[in-house]
Amino acid sequence: MTTKTIEGFTVEVNEEGFLVSPEQWNEEIARAIAREEGIEELTPQHWQVIRWCRENAVNGRSPTLRQITAGTGLSTKELFALFPKGPAKKVARIAGLGKPEGCV
Amino acid sequence: MLNGTENTRKMAFVCTKGTLDMAYPALVMGWAALGNGVDVIMFFAFWGLDIIRKSRQDHLELAPVGNTSMKLSMMGLPMENAGIPNALGVLPGMTAIATRLMKEKMRALGIPPVSEYVQMLIDGGAKLYACKLSVDMMGLKREDFVDGLAGIVTASDFIDMTEGAQIIFI
Questions:
Q1: Is any Cβ of chain B less than 8 angstroms from the Cβ of A16?
Q2: Stretch B139-150: mean pLDDT, rounded?
Q3: Angular region, B2: left φ>0, alpha ψ -120 to 50, beta rest
Q4: B123–A77 CB contact, under 8 Å
């Protein structure tokens, strides 16, 4: 575990770059991690997913993709378009949560 | 073809079985791969075609006959390691009972039915192909398969499109 400075905030991250403590997260950190993940601008739909995941995180872990689509009403296609190439990991990282625990 | 960038990891699943228990491994792993940014190809051959056949995909079954992993305890009987006798397994309705039990367990865990899972994979960007030889042998047509099928291709096409991919045979 190491510390990292993102947008002037010092946060603890694990070896894969996920925040260790969800409470160290804020919106500026989210925007910075999103840019690292290739998402230049977080739209209201991105924020809808991020907020829903933070509200429904269990033990600091992000919900699964199917839980996200069921919970937000977004389709699988929309979710993959918002967070291309690996939404499960990207959503979790940007939302300052751990990787989902479930398989679906 | 896979349309990822050069550096993207690729996985290809060859699905040859049409029983309920053998349909899920590729669906679960393929979905996990997509979630992690891995390009996914799925090639359905022989009985595996049932997974993408509209009329069959939600009617896959699990037979207790000859299945040494299925125990009476799975049917709620307090017999730890006692198997389901093959002589019982052949009775009419036993396959239906075993299938229903497995489906109930999966539903309780929030695992989607096969048709929904296949659609999730298609929507998530997986490329699904049917094996031409198997399709011809079984006298099937394009319209027998799910709408999102990327094509009916030969084994040679599959080899071409999976260059550099990790291949998993199920």
A1: no
A2: 97
A3: beta
A4: yes
User: What is the per-residue pLDDT for B78?
Assistant: 83
- The DSSP line for A2-48 is EEEEETTEEEEE-TTS-BS-GGG--HHHHHHHHHHTT-----HHHHH
Does residue B125 belong to the interface with chain A, where contact is any CB pair within 8 Å? yes
Please tell me which of the candidates B4, B35, B123 has its beta carbon nearest to residue A88.
B35
Considering only CB atoms, which chain B residues are within 8 Å of A75?
123
B104: left (phi over 0), alpha (psi -120 to 50) or beta: alpha
pLDDT value at residue B76: 76
Instruction: Confirm whether A103 is a catalytic residue.
Output: yes
pLDDT at B38 over 70: yes
Res B67 pLDDT > 50: yes
- pLDDT band, very low/low/confident/very high, at B77 (cuts 50, 70, 90): confident
pLDDT tens-digit series, residues A19-39 = 999 999 999 999 999 999 999
Domain covering B10-169, topology = Hypothetical Protein Ychn; Chain: A, (3.40.1260)
Give yes or no for a contact between A40 and A47, defined as CB atoms under 8 angstroms apart: no
A61, A68, A76, A93, best to mutate vs chain B, most B CBs in 10 Å:
A76
